[in-house]
Amino acid sequence: MSHRHVMVTRSAKLSCRNNQLVVRQEDESSGEMCEYTIPLEDIRTLMLEDRQSIITSALLARLAEFRIAVFTCDEKHLPNGVLLPYCQHSRGPKIMQSQLEMKRPLVKRLWQAVVRRKIENQAACLTLCGCSGDEALLALAGRVASGDKGSIESQAARMYFKHLFGKAFKRSSDDFINSAMNYGYALIRGQVARSLCAFGFQPSIGLQHHSELNNFNLADDLMEPYRPIVDYVVASELDVDSPILSKLHKRRLMQILTQMVWLENERYDLTASIEAMVSSFSNAISTEDPSALQLPRLTEVQMGVYE
């Protein structure tokens, strides 16, 4: 099973040879050209942070075949795009048809489960960070109705961020905290979209998100319970007073993909948990049983290996 999350932070030429990623770049100390190789079967994620790097079309095709999520970055070195595999599932049309034919009560119950778990994880985040407000959030989680008719999610968000980052914090501000969270969210969003495509789902058709301008509505729905995991790392492990989001900060955020999380009674690293969640989502649709959907639970934070 793939397990590596690779970041390219310096100018390099990326190509493919014998089903291996080949990276050619200058050594930082000697200035000599060096070559590194990584088996494609070991890679889950490739982050192209350096904007001067060159990648061959043959490698792009191979990355898609191996279902590797490839992230591109903007001038601020924040993820702004992701390359996903296309039509990888053997029963893609059947899966997509079942997605389109979901009955409204099932959709509303699935969204209820997603929102409830997200708020429960927000409460866990406050607990782990030593902040108040966790009990109030758990009480709100218990009030989430089918389809979140009472908009409990938005009420919880206002309370949650106030307790986690202070009353002055605004989610719309262009500051370190928001940049760090957006970076982590983009990584998880890409992984959810990758798994949805691999299972044959159309990521633009969501449960709650329905924007015509968003190709990842379903990914945005299913990633919601994972957001507090990013929030916890930002609040507890990064210096929120930093002026910029540095390479070290980004490496730490990349490690979130290797964090261990609970899905029902089993532990997975975060990327594997996303695959298991999407698999359970497929099962919930086919059986019309919302309780079949397995969602992550934030407990303690343990990171795996990152390079």
UniProtKB/TrEMBL annotation:
Gene3D superfamilies: CRISPR-associated endonuclease Cas1, C-terminal domain. Its cofactor is Mg(2+); Mn(2+). Its EC number is 3.1.-.-. Keywords: Antiviral defense, DNA-binding, Endonuclease, Hydrolase, Magnesium, Manganese, Metal-binding, Nuclease. Pfam families: Cas_Cas1. GO terms for biological process: defense response to virus; maintenance of CRISPR repeat elements. Mn(2+) binds at E153, H209, E224. Homodimer, forms a heterotetramer with a Cas2 homodimer. Belongs to the CRISPR-associated endonuclease Cas1 family. This is CRISPR-associated endonuclease Cas1.
